[in-house]
Design brief:
Number of helices: 16
Low-confidence stretches: 18-29, 31-39, 56-61, 454-468
Largest sheet: none
Distance between the termini: 30 Å
Order of helices and strands: HHHHHHHHHHHHHHHH
Structural class: mainly alpha
Mean pLDDT: 77
Shape: elongated
Length: about 475
């Protein structure tokens, strides 16, 4: 439309208004007032919560940081007889452990029905299911089977990686590995488990309140058996405890002997790189990784075992076993920490002596320099002073790095031990976000459905008013 047409239209409107024309001016379209409807906001917020809770992780998974990685369940050549009887692979291993634990529970049920059955199958079965000992004993045995393979898995996978930065040949590492997993594992595992097995046997044979301690004073089982003798079900429990203590001895052997292997290798071999690079890049960290993962596994095992003890009011040998496991974990960390510090101490002291010599020589040179006017003398003096300052900074850096060796690894051990709890909390937060998203989405849907009739009615009135 040209400028002339616009001018003519405006003049025509002014003329009609001046004449007092009763014809109403054409209504200009007004922008629709923004509604305060928040209906679309809630679904968007709900979708955002769902995406936040269940979006794929951008960071790549670290198989070495996950103690439950399927690779830890692979069969590794070793002489531990109990592990060699079990199949390879995570699925087959879990299936075998499940079948064994379920079979033990069924055997206990059959023994209960044969020895203390009242003739009413449903009632006897119900009382057996209510028994606290048999509610958790299969689960505890299953946890032992998981830890049996995981302990071996994390030590075997990290064995070669722990000594990557040392001048040790692969053939020598294989020799240490054969020693580590050799026939002595059976001897040491049985030797560690033997005191606890004897403890349980003594309590089983001479304990006056054996049944009250194991089953609880209010258990119906005590009312229908002769508590002065030991039933077949009690013998089955003793057999299960014996196998659990043997697996426990295997855990202890791996932690303790693994630390001594690290100590033996560090006494014979040095780090390839210079000491400042070793301390800066923390090349000793792989040696602590296996202890950190073992600590996470110990925490997982201890948490479930503690729940079992509190729920069943079990014997004192379980408490002693947990204390020993934590003590051996701390001991293995201390042995590794002391071995790394002893290995680096000589190199650190040598480096510090060289830096001190460099600082003293620069200081002596600066003291003998004469104050000669000129830029050359100033430049030379500045160079000597910078060299002195650099030597002092290197001295302080090496000392602080060496003194702090092991602190971050200890904190890493603590965080690794708390990793299972953090994983559970993360899952709770994710599912909480999902529930919040569902709630907001439901509220948004209800709000939109309640406002929909009013919007439809407003839209229907618009054409009628426009036509009037």
């Amino acid at each position: 439309m040209s400028e002339g047409d616009h001018t003519e239209t405006r003049e025509t409107q002014w003329l009609e208004e001046a004449k007092g024309s009763s014809a109403p001016a054409p209504a200009q379209p007004q922008p629709a007032a923004r509604s305060k409807d928040t209906g679309p906001v809630l679904p968007a917020l709900g979708m955002k919560l769902v995406e936040t809770a269940f979006r794929g992780k951008e960071r790549r998974p670290d198989p070495d940081g996950d103690i439950f990685d399927a690779a830890n369940f692979k069969q590794v050549k070793n002489s531990w007889w109990l592990d060699r009887l079990l199949p390879d692979g995570a699925r087959k291993y879990f299936l075998a452990a499940y079948v064994i634990c379920t079979g033990v529970w069924l055997i206990a049920l059959v023994l209960r029905l044969m020895e203390a059955g009242t003739g009413e199958l449903s009632e006897d079965l119900w009382y057996f299911v209510k028994d606290k000992q048999w509610q958790l004993q299969p689960l505890l045995l299953f946890v032992h089977f998981i830890c049996l393979r995981l302990f071996k898995g994390i030590y075997s996978r990290n064995f070669d990686r722990a000594f990557t930065h040392l001048d040790v040949q692969q053939g020598e590492l294989e020799t240490f590995k054969r020693w580590f997993y050799g026939r002595r594992v059976n001897l040491f595992a049985i030797a560690i488990a033997l005191p606890f097995i004897a403890w349980d046997f003594l309590f089983f044979a001479t304990g006056e309140k054996f049944y009250e301690t194991i089953y609880g004073a209010d258990s119906r089982y005590l009312q229908i058996i002769d508590t002065s003798t030991r039933t077949a079900e009690a013998w089955l429990l003793l057999t299960i405890w014996t196998f659990e203590w043997l697996m426990f001895g295997f855990y202890c052997y791996l932690m303790l002997s693994g630390a001594f292997v690290v100590r033996a290798i560090l006494r014979k071999h040095d780090f390839v790189d210079s000491v400042d690079l070793v301390l800066t890049e923390r090349q000793y960290r792989p040696m602590f990784n296996v202890i950190a993962q073992a600590g996470s596994l110990v925490f997982f095992y201890g948490l479930i075992h503690l729940g079992y003890m509190l729920y069943t009011k079990s014997a004192d040998s379980d408490i002693a076993g947990l204390i020993l496991l934590v003590t051996l974990l701390s001991t293995s960390f201390g042995i590794t920490w002391g071995a790394v510090r002893a290995e680096l101490r000589g190199n650190v002291n040598a480096a510090l002596e060289e830096l001190e010599k460099s600082y003293r020589s620069c200081r002596e040179k600066l003291a003998t320099m004469k104050d000669i006017p000129g830029i050359d003398d100033d430049i030379q003096r500045i160079q000597v002073q910078l060299k002195m300052q650099l030597a002092l900074q290197q001295l302080d850096y090496l000392q602080s790095k060496y003194e702090s060796l092991g602190r971050r690894e200890f904190l890493g051990l603590v965080f690794k031990m708390l990793a299972p709890v953090g994983s559970v909390l993360a899952r709770i937060i994710r599912w909480g976000s999902l529930l919040a998203a569902i709630g907001l989405g439901s509220a948004a849907a209800l709000g939109v459905s309640e406002r929909q009739p009013a919007n439809v009615g407003t839209e229907a009135e618009a054409p009628a008013n426009a036509g009037e």
